[in-house]
Automatic annotation (TrEMBL):
Residues 18-143 form the Ig-like domain. Pfam families: V-set. The chain crosses the membrane at residues 322-342. Keywords: Membrane, Transmembrane, Transmembrane helix. The lineage of its organism: Eukaryota, Metazoa, Chordata, Craniata, Vertebrata. One of its GO terms (biological process) is cell differentiation. The keyword Membrane applies. InterPro entries: Ig-like_dom (IPR007110), Ig-like_dom_sf (IPR036179), Ig-like_fold (IPR013783), Ig_sub (IPR003599), Ig_V-set (IPR013106), MXRA8 (IPR042472). This is Matrix remodeling-associated protein 8. One of its GO terms (cellular component) is membrane.
Length: 411
């Protein structure tokens, strides 16, 4: 089984004279098996360039602030073809040098600058074969005062302030080799594999194979002749330069590197693989039963195996349990408070009931005491045979005193 371990990201992107490292991996493969070291290049088109003159083009565009930031194509040009100016008014007045694709100078020259030439110019360089696109913006302003002529950078683009009626050259320079004519394009595209054994310096690595876009192939050593190592014949068509190694042995471990060179496009890529050969796989991998002391052989069970997986508690899991606990505590507190409130209400109602009964009993007792008082007062009356028996005024006074006594007793 193939196991891949990606190395530190610091390795990726490092560059030196050998090219930019785009990929670095560790591979561990069992002995006797076949290893495939992948090497793909979807970024580049590894085919022959038969129409190079149509693959490269430069064009200038103008964006005016009025009306409504309208865009206008000024001119375009391809190698081996005359430049095309889109506005008849600009013919002979606006142009780029004829040697643009030889010296990489695509500057736009404007003669007799007018107010209509104001705006933002864009120089667009395209190389469709190498998939390269570059744009350069320059802003052109026109003034009537010679003292205001200047050139400065506004933070995003270069600004030219030129005198009305003068001439100006808007620079657009790209002297990279890809903008020059390529010689023998088939020899400009090369792919090769190197092998560095453990303890060997990088400059002493062994060359395994060289591949050319023309179909030429150079093998170094007997490994490819014995079909132990191989690369696809249509590598430049598919962009797949993977190296296959069969019947791995411990002597095959080491550092393998894939180098892709496209001198015409100025691109260099490198991929590094560290191959380790492990122990060979058993012919018939079986799992021996585990027999412990004082135990017999395990019974043969045809049922499915059960695997217990213990997952660590997640933070949200503990928070959920804490929520359940708080909800339970709040519910119990609500029940206790409800019981206490109901108990107090019942006690209050019972006290009110007892007060009412006591009030009613006092009313009855007061009536009885009144009668008793009357009787007592009656008992305290003078006998009928007294001297004041026939005195009406004295009877009234006695009755009044008796009534007053009753009222006082009630209070």
């Amino acid at each position: 089984m193939l196991r891949v371990f990606v190395e530190a990201a610091a390795v990726l992107g490092s560059s030196n004279g050998l090219g930019v490292v785009l990929e670095a991996k560790n591979l561990t493969v069992p002995a006797g098996s076949t290893a495939v070291l992948p090497c793909h290049s979807p970024r580049m088109v590894w085919t022959r360039d038969r129409l190079k003159d149509r693959q490269r083009v430069v064009h200038w565009d103008l964006v005016r602030s009025s009306p409504e930031y309208a865009m206008e194509r000024i001119l375009d040009m391809s190698p081996g073809a005359s430049q095309r100016v889109y506005n008849g008014f600009n013919k002979g007045r606006i142009f780029i040098p004829d040697s643009a694709f030889s010296d990489g100078n695509f500057s736009l020259i404007i003669k007799n600058v007018g107010q209509t030439d104001k705006g933002i110019y864009t120089c667009n360089l395209h190389h469709h074969y190498c998939q390269i696109h570059q744009s350069i913006q320059i802003q052109l302003n026109v003034t009537k005062s010679a003292r205001k002529e200047k050139r400065y950078w506004d933070g995003e683009k270069t600004v030219f302030v030129v005198l009305l009626g003068s001439s100006v050259a808007l620079p657009c320079v790209n002297r990279r080799s890809l903008w020059r004519e390529g010689l023998q394009e088939d020899q400009q595209q090369v792919a090769h594999w190197d092998f560095q054994a453990p303890g060997v310096r990088p400059d002493r690595a062994d060359r395994l194979v060289d591949l050319y876009a023309s179909g030429e192939r150079r093998d170094y050593g007997p490994l490819f002749g014995q079909n132990k190592m191989s690369v696809a014949e249509d590598a430049f068509t598919l962009g797949d330069f993977s190296l296959s190694i069969s019947e791995l042995k411990p002597t095959d471990k080491g550092l393998y590197s894939c180098h892709l060179h496209h001198h015409y496009c100025g691109l260099q890529e490198r991929r590094i693989f560290r191959l380790t050969v492990g122990p060979p796989l058993p012919p018939n991998p079986t799992v021996a039963p585990r027999i412990f002391q004082n135990d017999g052989p395990e019974p043969n069970v045809d049922g499915p195996r059960v695997v217990n997986v213990i997952l660590p508690e997640h933070r949200s899991y503990s928070v959920q349990h804490m929520g359940y606990f708080l909800a339970t505590v709040l519910l119990l507190a609500f029940i206790v408070v409800s019981v206490i409130v109901l108990t107090r209400r019942r006690k209050k109602r019972g006290m009110e009931y007892e007060l009412r009964r006591w009030d009613r009993g006092n009313v009855v007792s007061e009536g009885e005491i009144t009668l008793d008082c009357t009787e007592l007062n009656t008992c305290k009356h003078e006998p009928l045979n007294s001297d004041y028996k026939n005195n009406l005024l004295k009877e009234r006074g006695m009755a009044k005193d008796c009534n007053m006594g009753e009222l006082y007793f009630i209070k």
